[in-house]
Amino acid sequence: MTKYLTEPFKKQLLEQRASLSEQLANLRGGNIGRAEASVERFQHTEDPRAQVDIERDLEFALDARESAELEAVDAALKRIENGVYGICIDCKAEIPAQRLHAAPETLRCIICQSKFELRHKSLGA
Questions:
Q1: Distance, CA of 57 to CA of 41 (rounded, Å)
Q2: How far apart are CA 79 and CA 113, in angstroms?
Q3: 92-123 pLDDT, tens per residue?
Q4: In terms of residue numbers, what domain contains 113?
Q5: pTM of the entire structure?
């Protein structure tokens, strides 16, 4: 995929990266780590212990999901930089532009992604 064709995807990925970074910063309470933010937030609460534990676990799960999304976006930006963006990592076919617009960080074409998900589902992952 040429630089001209990847430019809209790069812009979309950079916007997505900025949004995820902002969400993570808000979730963490600034530029501190997940553990520090959790201690700071839940250390002096009057809520019942079970409720605090559930809220903390939910925040950790959101943080982990958004961190994984951010890593996927960064990896997609790296693929653009390396000139391999839009190529399925399994079959090496070109990923259709419609799929990339819907999920610009995607690694696989639809067929390979379906196979990947079936393999992981049968492994219990």
A1: 13
A2: 18
A3: 999 999 999 999 999 999 999 999 999 988 77
A4: 86-125
A5: 0.70
Tracing tokens 């379906």 back to the chain, one arrives at 114
10 touches 80 (CB < 8 A): yes
Chain position carrying tokens 């799929």: 99
Helix axis angle, 3-28 to 49-82, nearest 10°? 160
Number of structural domains, the chain? 2
Residue-level pLDDT at 18? 93
Same domain, 94 and 120: yes
Residue 94 phi, psi dihedral angles, 5° rounding: -75, 135
pLDDT mean over 72-83: 95
- Identify the three-state secondary structure at position 113: helix
Burial 50-84 (b: 16+ CB within 10 A, else e): eebeeeeeebeeebeebeebbebbeebbebbeeee
